[in-house]
């Protein structure tokens, strides 16, 4: 079976970073630089219980090899550092899923009450677990998994200012990243594949549009607060059928205001995320609210049990798949996390979500444990069900699967 | 800022008043127990900040071992608990994970965890005092900074331990989330160093014993034990702590203990 991957053109900011690193490197010869290499290599095996719904999809088995090293240099007592984290996946079935990315290639300088971060980085915002509504800086690496947790590296210039009244972050984000989607052979996708070469933008600058973000974050007693304004290219594309029986991507400009709050009150964590998004196509509000409660030392043992519940709401209500995703317009999520607190850090996670407007649910269970000093083995099972053709899960109704992974950390 | 300072000092005054009031009701043994622990705390004041490397060796009943490699940066805070930044290096799968804690003598500590894979900073509940730290025999509360207000005291007498005379003091945790009913602590009469602690579980049976060895003095004042051994009598497991590279007054500041420093901690 042919294996292939695409090399993306090296973006400008990478070139700039490389130049800066080189310049720093030459001026650094008198300085003591500490170097550290770490990372992980993993083997993943997925097994789909049913055959693919769409003609070209792989049938049952999909194997993958992942490699994510991290190279790190620091000097000036750690106040200057460079981090480089390339990522590579080789997939046995879906050539689109075989891909590489630079997750991080950045220079960071820390002053007393400010920090400058330049290069490709990952920036996470938010407090909830089941949906990351306010997290907008990085594009989703959708070919990795369908849960949207994996992100592509984003080029940025980020200035962070620490004040008594909170941390203010200013972001300049050049170079938009297009979302990745599974290819023809891939599972966990829509009936029609997304064409990665048929991409249009509302902005005449296209993917060169310079996005901006301004965020404030602060901790006041038991409350952790965050608020931001984002102006730039929407990370979610409108997908519309093209003449070639594929979906074409259209990225519009958006302004988004976001708020995230967590109250940490004893064993309770109360969480709220809310956004208001304005585009030329539509304006809407959405929220994710919930809690997390921990039972420490269950039945006088070392076990901890965390119980989570969240609800998502979206002012757009139910929408068809071709419209932009408002899939979590009235959904509930339940989760449980059992930590064994043993030498092997054994852990069991369970998640259940359901759409309250129609029959659609997803269920996942994940177990992981350390073997020896640096091997982690994990087993995941995910079940997706719906009878409603309007639900995104309808396209995935045959994609119930189990995944077994072995990762070696070095 | 000035108002804040005035408020703080009036709170401190109020606190002292309360302590004074309470102390009037103490028996001679309780007072002596409090005095010994207060003296031990007082003798160690003024370290300002420190950095150290900690090696944790976990051993189960069958003799299987596992290693945790951790770096700790601490900042002494006047009239409050210390601030600390804990950085994990081993096991490899948690490398880069960092933990920021602002401890408080009476109110709940503020704690944040940085998860490097997601680049996520998460505020966590500090209620978990009794749970195991990294699968070891140390509970979170065993590793947090010692504050006078966290316990009530009772003096039990003098005993010879490690060839020196030591005060034997019983300490009762104030926090209802503590995993212990009491601890018995042996503090030597000359330097006020802790040599041994017996931990009694919620049913008041002996759970663990912690012994300190190879004390070294830093800046001609601060004593730190190079080795600590925690033995769990109930499950047969043990955890050894080896401290290396203790440095004091390194110049760490308040700004080294915030969300930003947590994210880049190494």
Topology:
The complex is a heterodimer of chains A (410) and B (266).
Chain A (H helix, E strand, L loop, with lengths): L11 H16 L6 E15 L12 E15 L4 E12 L7 E12 L3 E8 L32 E10 L2 E8 L20 E8 L9 E10 L2 E11 L4 E4 L5 E5 L1 E13 L2 E11 L4 E13 L8 E11 L15 E10 L7 E9 L4 E12 L3 E12 L5 H4 L5 E9 L1
Parallel strand pairs in A: 8-12
Antiparallel strand pairs in A: 1-2, 1-21, 2-3, 3-4, 4-5, 5-6, 6-7, 7-9, 9-10, 10-13, 11-12, 13-14, 14-15, 15-16, 16-17, 17-18, 18-19, 19-20, 20-21
Chain B lengths: L1 H23 L3 H16 L5 E11 L5 E11 L7 E8 L7 E5 L7 E6 L4 E5 L15 H4 L7 E11 L2 E10 L6 E9 L5 E8 L4 E13 L3 E11 L5 E11 L10 H6 L2
Antiparallel strand pairs in B: 1-2, 1-13, 2-3, 3-4, 4-5, 5-6, 7-8, 8-9, 9-10, 10-11, 11-12, 12-13
Order of helices and strands of chain A: HEEEEEEEEEEEEEEEEEEEEHE
Question: Counting H and I runs of at least 4 residues, what is the number of helices of chain B?
Answer: 4
How would a textbook summarize the main sheet of chain A? Answer: 18 strands, antiparallel, barrel
Oligomer type: heterodimer
Report on this structure.
The two termini of chain A are 30 Å apart. Chain A has one domain (11-409): Beta Barrel (Porin), CATH 2.40.160. Chain A has helices at residues 12-27, 392-395; strands at 34-48, 61-75, 80-91, 99-110, 114-121, 154-163, 166-173, 194-201, 211-220, 223-233, 238-241, 247-251, 253-265, 268-278, 283-295, 304-314, 330-339, 347-355, 360-371, 375-386, 401-409. With 410 residues, chain A is mostly beta strands. Chain A has an 18-stranded antiparallel barrel. Chain A has a 3-stranded mixed beta sheet with strand order 8-12-11, with no helix packed on it. With 266 residues, chain B is an alpha+beta fold. Chain B contains 4 helices and 13 strands. Chain B is globular and about 55 Å long. In chain B, 34% of the residues are buried. Classes of the chains: A mainly beta (410), B alpha+beta (266). Chains A and B meet through strand 1 of A and strand 6 and helix 4 of B.
């Amino acid at each position: 079976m042919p294996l292939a991957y695409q090399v993306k053109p090296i973006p400008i900011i990478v070139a700039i970073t490389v130049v800066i690193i080189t310049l720093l490197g030459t001026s650094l010869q008198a300085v003591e630089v500490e170097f550290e290499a770490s990372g992980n290599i993993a083997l993943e095996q997925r097994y789909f219980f049913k055959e693919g719904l769409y003609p070209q999809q792989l049938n049952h088995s999909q194997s993958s090899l992942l490699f994510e090293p991290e190279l790190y240099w620091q000097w000036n007592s750690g106040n200057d550092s460079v981090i480089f984290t390339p990522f590579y996946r080789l997939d046995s079935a879906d050539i689109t899923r075989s891909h590489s990315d630079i997750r991080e290639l950045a220079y960071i300088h820390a002053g007393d009450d400010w920090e400058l971060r330049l290069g490709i980085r990952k920036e996470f915002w938010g407090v909830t677990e089941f949906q990351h509504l306010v997290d907008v800086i990085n594009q989703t690496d959708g070919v990795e998994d369908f849960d949207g947790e994996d992100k592509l590296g984003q080029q940025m210039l980020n200035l962070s200012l620490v004040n008594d009244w909170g941390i203010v972050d200013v972001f300049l984000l050049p170079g938009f990243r297009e979302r990745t989607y599974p290819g023809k052979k891939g599972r966990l996708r829509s009936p029609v594949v997304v064409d990665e070469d048929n991409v249009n933008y509302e902005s005449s600058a296209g993917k060169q549009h310079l996005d901006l973000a301004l965020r404030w974050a602060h901790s006041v007693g038991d409350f952790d607060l965050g608020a931001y304004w984002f102006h730039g290219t929407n990370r979610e594309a409108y997908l519309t059928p093209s003449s070639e029986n594929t979906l074409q991507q259209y990225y519009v400009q958006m302004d988004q205001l976001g708020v995230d709050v967590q109250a940490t009150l004893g064993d309770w964590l109360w969480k709220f995320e809310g956004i208001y998004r304005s585009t030329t196509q539509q304006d809407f509000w959405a929220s994710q609210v919930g809690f997390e409660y921990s039972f420490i030392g269950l039945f006088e043992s070392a076990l901890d049990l965390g119980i989570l519940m969240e609800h998502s709401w979206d002012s757009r209500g139910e929408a068809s798949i071709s419209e932009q995703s408002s899939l979590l317009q009235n959904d509930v999520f339940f989760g449980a996390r059992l930590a064994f607190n043993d030498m092997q850090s054994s852990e069991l996670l369970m998640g259940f979500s359901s759409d309250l407007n129609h029959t659609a649910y997803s269920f996942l269970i994940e177990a992981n444990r350390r073997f020896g000093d640096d091997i982690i083995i994990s087993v995941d099972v995910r079940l997706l069900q719906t009878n409603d053709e309007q639900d995104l899960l309808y396209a995935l109704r045959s994609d119930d699967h189990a995944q077994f992974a072995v990762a070696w950390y070095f | 800022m000035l108002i804040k300072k005035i408020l703080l000092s009036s709170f401190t005054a109020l606190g002292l008043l309360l302590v004074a009031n309470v102390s009037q009701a103490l028996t001679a043994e309780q007072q002596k127990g409090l005095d010994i622990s207060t003296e031990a705390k007082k003798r160690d004041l003024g370290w300002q900040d420190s950095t150290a490397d900690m090696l944790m060796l976990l051993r189960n009943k069958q003799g299987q071992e596992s290693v945790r490699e951790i770096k700790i940066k601490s900042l002494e805070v006047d009239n409050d608990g210390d601030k600390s930044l804990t950085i994990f290096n081993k096991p490899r799968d948690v490398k880069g994970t960092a933990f920021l804690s602002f401890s408080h003598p009476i109110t709940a500590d503020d704690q944040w965890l940085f998860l490097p894979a997601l680049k996520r900073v998460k505020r966590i509940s500090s209620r978990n005092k009794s749970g195991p730290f990294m699968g070891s025999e140390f509970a979170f509360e065993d590793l947090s900074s010692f504050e006078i207000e966290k316990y009530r005291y009772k003096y039990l007498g003098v005993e010879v331990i490690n060839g020196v005379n030591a005060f034997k003091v019983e300490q009762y945790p104030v926090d209802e989330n503590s995993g212990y009913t009491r601890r018995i602590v042996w503090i030597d009469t000359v330097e006020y160093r802790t040599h041994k602690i017996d931990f009694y579980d919620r049913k008041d049976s002996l759970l663990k014993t912690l012994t300190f060895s190879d004390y070294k003095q830093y800046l001609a004042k601060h004593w730190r034990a190079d080795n600590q051994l925690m033995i769990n009598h109930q499950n047969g497991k043990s955890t050894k702590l080896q401290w290396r590279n203790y440095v004091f007054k390194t110049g760490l500041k308040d700004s080294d203990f915030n969300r930003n420093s947590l994210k880049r901690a190494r």
